[in-house]
Amino acid sequence: MEKEDGMVKQEDSQEKSPGQYLKKIREGKGISLREVAEETKIRVHYLRALEGDDYASLPGEVYARGFLRNYARFLGIPADEMSQFKPITPPEERGARLQQPVIQRRSKPRKPRRWLSALLLIFGIAVVAFFLLSYFVGMPVPDPEDNGRPNGGISDGILPNGEGDIAGEGENEEEPPTEVKLIRDTEYMVEYSVSGGPIVMEVRVGQSPCWLRVAADGNVIGDETLQPGEVREYRAADHLQGRAGNPGSLSIVVNGLDVGVVGKQGIPKDFSFSLE
């Protein structure tokens, strides 16, 4: 190394981008991307996109900033040191459109019992045919109180099925319950896993307004300020994520399970729900 006036020249630590700077620090410490992913819960392909300045592969600007902040915190880099870099301006997401949130009433799916309707129809036809035959042929109509009916024991819509059950009452098949597990919860981000899809999230605003931005499977589907008492429902196939400006006033229900509030009043926070 060259020396001038007894002082060692120092290399400029500033890189072209925050991603390149984080990569240099990580490689200098001998840490692999998989180790970073396990500690920060950021997926490996997102970490590669950050280090390669490929912001188009990230969910959005809000998440890019959050990923960089958590990555730098893991490497022990002070926040003021990261402030030397220019703000991130990722390119516009291709094909992303702002959509109005879909408000739907949740209802439990009911399986149609077509066989029951067919059975009742056949029974009705048989009763009408019996009475017509009795009228034209002169057969006496059996007494309703007589248990020895000539119709083989068909009475009051009840048919023997071998087990003494009333016809038309089948066993209801129960679907396996959905589980929502907390994976990670920090001051600025909380992550959950969902055992079954699709993911359906219902949000309800409490006593104070809350700004909310939601992305489903990488596409932004909601960005608005909700007023007290308002309810919204969002759906995603695999991954539902968002950011709330006032999470302490936002109650969340996912696939019918009450998650509750995900943060404190007045402190913005990111949240995500992903299929296992």
Overall pLDDT, averaged?
A: 77
User: Biggest β-sheet, characterized?
Assistant: 6 strands, mixed
Shape: elongated
Q: Using only CA atoms, what is the Rg?
A: 32 Å
Q: What structural class results from the helix and strand content?
A: alpha+beta
Could you state the order of secondary-structure elements as H and E? EEHHHHHHEEEEEEEEEE
Low-confidence stretches are 1-15, 93-103, 148-170
Helix content: 25-40%
Estimate what percentage of residues fall within beta strands: 15-25%
Number of strands: 12
First and last CA, distance:
53 Å
**How many helices in DSSP terms?**
6
Q: What is the topology, as strand order, of the major beta sheet?
A: 3-4-12-9-6-7
* Oligomer state of the chains in this structure: single chain
